[in-house]
Amino acid sequence: MDLVARLRAAGCVFAEEEAELLRDADESQVARRVAGEPLEHVLGWAAFRGRRFVVAPGVFVPRHRSELLVDLAVARAFPGAVVVDLCCGTGALGAAVAGAVSSGDSKASPPASSDSSATPSIELHAVDADPAAVACARRNVPGAVYEGDLDAPLPPSLRGRVDVLLASPPYVPTAEIARMPPEAREHEPLGTLDGGPDGLALARRIAALAPGWLAPGGALLVECATHQGPDLAAAVRDYGLAATVHGDDDATTVEGRWPTH
Ligand SMILES: C[S@@+](CC[C@H](N)C(=O)[O-])C[C@H]1O[C@@H](n2cnc3c(N)ncnc32)[C@H](O)[C@@H]1O
Fold it and tell me: Which of 8, 69, 241, 245 could tie 253 with a disulfide, CB 3.0–4.6 Å?
C-alpha cells in the first residue's frame, strides 16, 4: 500500500499533505503516525503563524486558534516591551510575538518613559511547569525560559514592568477530556489540557496574579473556550482589570487592561 493509502486507511483526513511531509520519514515514523500519534510529534516540529517550532512527544502542539491571542499581543507590544508567556508549552506563542515585533508588525507605541531605541524586539520571559515543554521552549524562545508553577519562577525585578502578559493555559473542563479526539487525549498529557471543573482554574489564578506584574496600562491576554469568555471576563474584573472579550466561535481571548495610574 502506498503512503497516502496507508494514512487514509488510518483515518488521516489530510492524507496527501501528510504524505508529502512524511516523504523522507523512516518506517518507524510512518508507523507512529499510522498508530495515531500527532503528525507534529512524529515530525518533531509544528507550524505556527508561518514558522516551525520544535515540539517533542508529550508536549502540547500549538493550535492555529491561538493566532488570535498572538495578533492581540503583537498589537499591544512594541520594541523593548516586556512580554511574559505563562503556560508556554513549546513557547511558540511568545516567540511568534517576538518575531512579529522584530519584523515591524506591531503598531503599538511605547510609553513615553520607555527607551525602545536599544532593541528591535521584545524582552521575552516564558514559563512552563513541564520539563519536556521547557526543553522545547528553550530551543524556540528568543528569551528566558523558566520551569515552575505559573509566575513562581519569574524574576521579582519584573514586578510592575510587564507590558503584555499572555497565556494559553489548560482550559478543558475535566469532564470533557474523555470526549476529546484520541490524538489529543492520548498524546498530550492531562496537565496540558485539564482546566478543572469549569476549565478556568488556571485562568483564574492567572487573572489573580496579573496585577502584581503588569506595568501601568499593561495588558493581560488569556485564551479560553468561547463559552468561558463571560466567566473569565468577570474574574478578570474582580482583580481590578478592565475586561474585554475578543474573538468568535473558533477562538476567544479575554483581555484585562491594568489602569495607567
Ligand atoms: C494548553 S497547553 C498550551 C501551551 C502553549 N501556550 C500553546 O498554546 O502552545 C498548556 C500548558 O500549560 C502548562 N501548565 C499547566 N499547568 C501549569 C502551571 N501550573 N504552571 C505553568 N505551566 C503549566 C502545560 O505544561 C502546558 O504546556
Answer: 69
